[in-house]
Amino acid sequence: MTHRTPLLWVCLLMSTVVLDVAAEAPAASTSAAPPSVQDLRRMHPISGDAKAGAAKTAVCLACHGPQGVAIAPNFPHLAGQSASYLYVQLKEFHDGQRKDPVMTGQAATLTDDDMRNLASYYATLPPKPAGKGDASSRGAQLYRAGDPARGIPPCQACHGPAGLGPQPHPSAAPQPPWATFPHLRGQSGLYLTKQLGDFKRGTRAGNSNARVMHGVAQTLSDDDIQALSAYLSSW
Amino acid sequence: MRLVSLCCAALLSVMLIVAGMLLSPPGAQAQQAAASSAAPPDVQHSASSGLSQGDIARMLPATDMGANAARQKDPHLAPVSDSPATPFDAAPIPVNPLAPNADAIGAKTCVACHAQENIQASHSLHVISFRAGAANSGPQAACETCHGPGSVHAKDPTAPGSIIAYTHESKTPPRVQAGVCLGCHAGGARQHWVGSVHENRGLSCSDCHNPMTRLSPEGLLAASSINEVCASCHQDIRAKFNRRSHMPLPEGQMACTDCHNPHGSITKPLLKTDTVNETCYTCHAEKRGPFLFEHAPVRENCLNCHDVHGSNQQTLLVAPIPMLCQQCHTMTLHPNDLQTPAGLGTGPHPDERIIGRGCLTCHSNIHGSNNPSGPKFHE
Amino acid sequence: MLALKQNRTTPTVLTLSLLLGLCGMQDVLAGDTSDTMRVGDTQFGNALDPLGWTPMLQPADPDGMSLLHAGMLRTPTGNLYPYPPMVNAGKPVGQGDWLYNGEIEFGYLHVGGDRNAEYFRQYADWRSGPVLGLLALNFWNPKTGEYVEFRGNHLSADDQFYRLRAGQYGSYRIEAFYRDMPHTVSTNAYPIWNGVGTTNLTLPPSLVPGGSTPAQVAAVSAVTPEHNIGLKRTREGLSYEGVVYQNWIASAGITNEKRTGTRLWGGSMFFNYSFPDNGGILETVRPIDFRTTDINLSLRNVGKVWHFLATYNGSFFRNHKDYLDFQSPFALSNVVGVPQVANITTGQFSLEPNNDYHNVRLDLSRELKWNGQLTVAGAWGTMRQNDALLPPTNCTGTGGVYISPTANYTFPCANWNTTAALSEPSANARIDTGLLDARATFHPNQAFGWHAGLRWYREDDKTRYLAYNPLTGQYGFISENGSQGTVVPGQTGFFDPNNPLYASNSVPVRNVPVSYTDAVLELGADWQLSHKTSLGVTYTYDRNEPKYRERNRVDDQRFKLAWVSRDVVGATIRLSWEYARRDGDQYNYDPYVPFYSQSLPGFVTPAVGLPAYTVADMRMYDLSNRTESKARLIVTHPLGESATISATFYGNRDNYDALIGRQSTRTTGATLQWDWQPSPKTTMNGYLGVEGSRMGIANVNDADSVDNGKIYGSIGQTNPNLGGPFYPYANQWWEYDSETNRNAGLTFSHDFGRVRADLSYNYTGSVGHVGYNYATIGALAFRDAASVAASNQGFPDDKYRTNTLDMGLSFRVTSNVGVRLYGRYETGAFSDWHYLGLNNTLVYDHRLYTDKGGQLHYNASLVGVMLNLKL
Questions:
Q1: Quick check: C586 and C495 in contact, CB under 8 A?
Q2: ipTM score assigned to the predicted complex
Q3: What's the CATH code of the domain at A194?
Q4: Which stretch is the leader sequence (chain A) (predicted)?
Q5: Cβ within 8 Å of C, B 99-158
């Protein structure tokens, strides 16, 4: 019996080695395929070369406008948007987690540096001039206070009281990736409506933030989405 | 002099207790901020959401999780008392002293963002049982029963203290945190939490428990086992269990809580019984006796001779035999000789007083003898 | 006996009927259970899975606990919560609302190497064969909150548990369990007797009781096969807890434990060290055959203002083998007088008597103003036994020594080997206890609080026994079953006021009913210095009033300071320091006179006086003056988002004001731990600990022999003073026990996807050293040249060391099927000078040992293959 033990040990050790190899192989193959969901929870704010980014905008401005203000309501405004948010979106178009007939193709050829630079460039542009916004509108109320009766949380928690991004208080506790949360103020209503719909249906679910938005958007009715989009675009 | 001071102190404490009794208010005095009852629905202060507390109370499934409804339907049940420790079907939403104006927003609003937390918590004993309690009214309540009303947090999630949090950066004082838990869990095994050493050291329930998920076989612990939880602070005690003789704790047969009640007790150190010995007798009932002939230090305190967590000597002894016995026994003749290697099995004078079990070879009934010829524990 | 038996049945039946009665009512809902209120059974696991629940097919959830932030949150103190396991949502049972999930792990375990090593299997019954690693089954109804849970594990028939819980959340819970727990005491024992495990140890036919030579005994011992000494605990329990009426919550539980096996024991037929080729010293084996039935009842009402808790704990211990008779192979011979007339060949022990225990307790708390609370607790307890007493001896014929007709020190055994020789037929022993505790706590505001407490506890031994033999009119007992008086004339153990031969024998004739009353006053205040920092001060005054002890009063005053800050450069620091002083009234080195025959009428003080009971300067350490200081620092420091480093530094210093007795103890130690969980896939932690301790005592050898100042038996023997003729300074000695403990551990776990690897290494190393010095060789037990030389060498160090490497590989074949390979390699080393030489022979002159002690070295391994299935 005693003699058999070392043999068993050898077997155990051998199996470890084999396993390690086996474990490596699928890991390698999965890393080639795009991960289905980008985990943004550890993402830090990005930095890039805005000037270099400006040089790459030739194609972008066709839709998003020369100053990052879209030429048509179905395209989002990019001016003044969070650089990290923009980068993440470009990366998702590039990697395939977010799909769009136009953007998927456009992003395919970009390098990682290109995406950082472009994102940084658009972040430096002045946002679309602010509108009035109707503070008493249904949309405004949803944005600021949500609707507890229907389980709708206030949007401002993450998108900021002024719609210009979150304003967290300093804390040593683990924080959400605040920089990846977009500014919504003045965004195109048509675009917002589509995105909220996509979140709700789960067709835009390519990253951990989108999974949160899936939960949030599911509390919204079509009317809520309309009201929110109308308010935000006019704000 | 000492006697005087003792008498004074005793008198003082009796006066304090009497004063305390007299001072207690005629009506119900809430135990903790957390335990004081939630704002009654008729107090309709204007909420920043534009909804009043009353509106929410009407729209939300009752945050008392349906108990009132259930009771009103059943004429045999007494109306819900406002006890801070009523079962969870009547758990109120605690007031958050750092956000006194916050309103309840309902669990559905919470889980809209906290989706993953919801998945985990929904399968933890705590929330499963909440939801079972809420079966009469729908699966809504839960989050705010512990975390306090959420409206301020929902609008400004990182505002300090906007919610009753139980984690490292929480602005809620540990005493308030514990008060929320005690709102349901007061009494019983936690009767002596207030004033216990763990309370005084600023521990919160969530230092040991995590009701948001299942990390342990049971007890909703903050680590994989009771022993792991205790060892997060008492590392030196855990190390003692690695010694030659120890209680079967590393072997998974025992937990710290088999003897200690971490929630507080009136017997130091957090023991569950009236004395140290009574705790030991629970498993070592044969040592309880009483015996015809008692050995004074044995009856007085098992810890006189045993280091119960672990020892480098046989049978958890605090010192090697015969040294252990020779601390007290210097009677004439055989007990007071200095034993040296000369008396070992390999020495020139092998001596029964040091070989093997040493003293215990003859005084085997050292815990007490019930033999009429056993006053020296020989028989 | 019948009455006692009934005693056992009645509470059982009562409790069971109460249990059944209570189960009927489950209308309202309860807060939770009272597990941490009762001693025992809060942990179900075993060495194979110390957690008792490690579902392999439920790996950590890759999404963690939140989509909103990375990593895990920390406890208020700063430790990371582990990543939660992936939820097992369960499958429906039939068409109803019930869901279930479950997991089973079973396979084969192979044990190799020194599988019988004592410290390898101390509390684990490792055996090659099939094992059940885990069987967990849960059924629950999310709508009603009803549930049924089962957990089980089987390593062997002696090492297993099964537990069933069922109930309705917040309403009631029923629990039933069965568990077997092994305890190996020795795997290196060689008992020569027949009947090991019974109450009668008889010598093998090749040995003659009272008539064998050491060589003959050694020959038998040498061929005695190895024997395992140990026991098994089998526990069963049944309990109920739930709401009985409105806010009244009751619990009732009954547990039954059967403990069977053997333990090493002794057996004395008088000294051998002072009487070469005489006496008899035997290490025997005693039986363990216990049954303990515990009954726990509680009733509580938790209201808004009042908290009420009443508990009853009853425990009924029954020993089915409550004596041990053994045969001694060695011949006894009288040191003076005519040739031996008596031959005592057997010894006897009374083992633990049956006992009954009841404790009733009431706890009441009331909320007060200023966030205050008043708690009053009162308890009354009693432990009793009235077992029939054995006769003072089981010898037959004549014992003692015959010198001459006027110096006839013999006694007929018939006068003592019958229960008619007893003053009382049964023990009639009883200790009553009482407890009163009152404390008030106030926190008038967030920044300040104070408390006061008073505790009073009394233990009263009501047992009164006078050792009087109505057949002979003699007081006392038969020492060592008659063997002592058969070697030394007159040392039979009794006092006879009517016989000048025994009229000067000072022997114990009464039991000492040691009792005490302890009163503790505590006053304390605490300040919240800032949001994260607090300071607490406590003063405790403890007055202990022991009865029939060397002091009538011992006062211990203690001052304690505790500082807690949760923000010292990001770390949580808990610092405590305490200082205590103990003193008391006058120390009486001999309070036992009333319990000896010297206090009886007819006692004749010998011409040379009675030898001093002990040295007057002895201070027993539980009663002596003492100063104590203790300090402890616990640091928990978060490192980044995924690591924690924590450390403990602690020490205590105790100084006893004693010339003779314990003089000091001190302990200093530190631990350091690092925990890292970078992702749900990976965890790693490391641990280091070191502790040193030292205890010092002083003692003095009495002048009992020609070569160390022979006073014993002469007029100077009455002088109790250190430095006097009987306890001369020259015979003083000092001894210390110094121990060092080192611990280290490293665990690593990583999930590669389909495979998880677990690796863990643990090291324990302890070294103990007993050192001594002495004024002159008069202190030594033996003072010949060889012994002095051996003494000068000192004791070798004691060692205990283990290295354990655990490896596990868990393959998830599918989400429902997995295979786990498990391996452990353990080495250990042990040495203890008590056992030196016993590996060569267990017989030294008239001494016979049974246990050779733990193995000096061992290597053992485990390899297991386990199939895991999700049910």
A1: no
A2: 0.94
A3: 1.10.760.10
A4: 1-22
A5: 113-117, 119-120, 122-123, 125, 128-129, 131-133, 135
